[in-house]
């Protein structure tokens, strides 16, 4: 059971391979024995965090070494609060110490935080070296590892420092999800629900057919493969049409506008990214209902999936509505001083608008306290 999805970009075409057991074959995927040649140099720097590296680092390095690569590694502290320029400096130090060249490759072994930082380091070291994504969390598999968004947080906002930089390959081994903590699995399901709402009504229906979405063990291997394939295909299609978010790609930010504000205002310590996105989707859905853009029944179907996934539907206790509204003004998606929201029109279809009246936004947020 293997899927290979093309991300068709004019200058940076690459593959997303979804293949159970593929982690032990990473080296052959990178040297072209399993797929098309990537023309990578000999030196590889594996970027990970201590917990992931302890679990999968030895296998990753063995696979790369056996395929003829010279391998080095660096571990960064886990957590969104460590997604900073200080962490990037540690990657630069390792790159310098091990004399990485322009033909060398950085491999991101971890979740979205590791992928974002490793990608940004790859984009900026020697003005750009090769980059391969090996996501180990569901959220990274279906979202963060695809599309080339890399970067770090600024104390005043999420992902304000970054670059678009595409990987040479995304290799997804679903089997590594067996060791993923349930809370992190639920965070990934939030992004899967997002794809169902904005793009893929068939995926949404498949999710509705699942009895539970809050833990991996309730999903069959076939269902997991379907979730991964549908989600990756959706993102690949959108990114292929709009690499740098000049239009269509903005749809992928569904739930993220308010979600990022919630993450930032709670110091990335109270809710994780997926939980914040779930809160943001509940808010966006209700805004769309209040603006008569989609139906109450549709938002209830969405919210039932969010509940089935064990994700929050209310704002964290003590969060100020005024602070959220102020924080929205620093969002990357603000244009001409207006906050742009992604709002659903029907299951599988959404649009971007900056015509959300302040009183509607405030009333929805008050209802979510």
UniProtKB/TrEMBL annotation:
Q: How is the cofactor bound?
A: Binds 1 divalent metal cation per subunit. Can use either Co(2+) or Zn(2+).
What's the EC number here?
A: 4.2.3.4
Binding locations of Zn(2+) = 191, 256, 273
Which is one GO molecular function term here? 3-dehydroquinate synthase activity
Domain 3-dehydroquinate synthase N-terminal, chain residue ranges per copy:
74-186
By its UniProt entry, which Pfam families does this protein fall under? DHQ_synthase (PF01761), DHQS_C (PF24621)
Read off the InterPro entries from this record: Dehydroquinate_synthase, DHQ_synth_AroB, DHQ_synth_fam, DHQS/DOIS_N, DHQS_C
- Does this entry carry the keyword Membrane? no
What are its cofactors?
Answer: NAD(+); Co(2+); Zn(2+)
Task: Keywords in alphabetical order, please.
Answer: Amino-acid biosynthesis, Aromatic amino acid biosynthesis, Cobalt, Cytoplasm, Lyase, Metal-binding, NAD, Nucleotide-binding, Zinc
Root EC class:
lyase
Q: Which SUPFAM superfamilies match?
A: Dehydroquinate synthase-like
- What reaction gets catalysed by this protein? 7-phospho-2-dehydro-3-deoxy-D-arabino-heptonate = 3-dehydroquinate + phosphate
Intracellular or extracellular location(s): Cytoplasm
Binding-site list for NAD(+): 112-116, 136-137, 149, 158
Domain 3-dehydroquinate synthase C-terminal, which positions?
188-334
Identify its protein family. Answer: Belongs to the sugar phosphate cyclases superfamily. Dehydroquinate synthase family.
As for what it does, the entry says:
Catalyzes the conversion of 3-deoxy-D-arabino-heptulosonate 7-phosphate (DAHP) to dehydroquinate (DHQ).
Question: What's this protein's name?
Answer: 3-dehydroquinate synthase
Q: Which organism is it from?
A: Floridaenema fluviatile BLCC-F154
């Amino acid at each position: 059971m293997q899927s290979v999805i093309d991300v068709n970009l004019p200058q940076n075409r690459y593959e997303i391979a979804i293949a159970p057991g593929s982690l032990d074959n990473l080296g052959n995927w990178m040297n072209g024995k399993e797929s098309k040649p990537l023309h990578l140099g000999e030196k590889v720097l594996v970027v990970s965090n201590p917990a992931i590296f302890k679990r999968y680092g030895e296998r990753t390095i063995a696979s790369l070494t056996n395929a003829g690569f010279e391998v080095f590694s660096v571990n960064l502290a886990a957590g969104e609060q460590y997604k900073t320029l200080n962490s990037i400096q540690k990657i630069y130090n390792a790159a310098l110490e091990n004399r990485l060249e322009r033909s060398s490759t950085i491999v991101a072994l971890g979740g979205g935080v590791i992928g974002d930082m490793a990608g940004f380091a790859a984009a900026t070291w020697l003005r750009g070296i090769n980059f391969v994504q090996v996501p180990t969390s569901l959220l990274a598999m279906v979202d963060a590892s695809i599309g080339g968004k890399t970067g770090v947080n600024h104390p005043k906002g999420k992902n304000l420092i970054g670059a678009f930089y595409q990987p040479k390959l995304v290799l997804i081994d679903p089997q590594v999800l067996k060791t993923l903590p349930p809370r992190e699995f639920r965070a990934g399901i939030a992004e899967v629900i997002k794809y169902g709402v904005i793009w893929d009504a068939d995926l949404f229906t498949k999710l509705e057919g699942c009895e539970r979405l809050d833990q991996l063990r309730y999903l069959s291997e076939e269902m997991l493969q379907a979730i991964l394939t549908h989600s990756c295909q959706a993102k690949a299609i959108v990114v292929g049409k709009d690499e740098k978010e000049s239009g269509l790609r903005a749809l992928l930010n569904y739930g993220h506008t308010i979600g990022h504000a919630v993450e930032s205002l709670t110091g990335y310590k109270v809710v994780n990214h997926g939980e914040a996105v779930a809160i943001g989707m509940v808010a966006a859905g209700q805004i769309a209902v209040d603006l008569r853009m989609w139906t109450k029944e549709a938002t209830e179907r969405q919210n039932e999936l969010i509940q089935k996934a064990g994700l929050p539907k209310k704002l964290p206790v003590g969060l100020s509505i005024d602070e959220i509204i102020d924080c929205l003004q620093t969002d990357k998606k603000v244009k001409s001083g207006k906050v742009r929201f992604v709002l659903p029109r029907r299951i599988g279809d959404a649009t971007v608008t900056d015509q959300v009246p302040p009183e509607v936004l405030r009333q929805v947020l008050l209802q979510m306290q």
